[in-house]
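Thread: quick sanity check before group meeting

JM: Hey all, I'm pulling together slides for Thursday and realized we never actually wrote out the predicted structure for the chain we discussed last week. Dropping the sequence here so it's in one place. If anyone has concerns about the input, flag it before I start.
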Amino acid sequence: MVHHIVMWKFKPEIGEERKPELKKAMKENLAGLVGKVPGLLTVEFVEEPLPSSTHDVALVTTLEKAEDISVYATHPAHVAVADTYVRPFVTERVCLDY
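JM (edit): ok, ran it. Output follows.
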C-alpha cells in the first residue's frame, strides 16, 4: 500500500469568499476518482487545516502499489479533474509519497 500526499496554496488572487466553493468542488471531484482510476483505493481531502499549517488544502490518497502513482497521475479522469478543479486555482504544490 502506498500513500500519495499533495498540498497546495491558493493563488494570491483567489479571494477568501471564493475558497469554500473551490474546496467543495475539489473535494467532490477528487473523491469521485475512486473506482475510476485503477489502483486508487481511497481519497481524503483536507479542506480545513489547522492555522499552524503552511498550505491551504491537502489531498491524501491510498494506492495499491507504487506503480499506481504514475497510473493515477496520467489517467484521463484524474487529468481532467486536476485541469478543471485544481490547477487553475492553486500554486506551490508539494508532494510526498510513501
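AS: nice. The chain has three helices and four strands. The mean pLDDT is 98.
JM: adding both to the slides.
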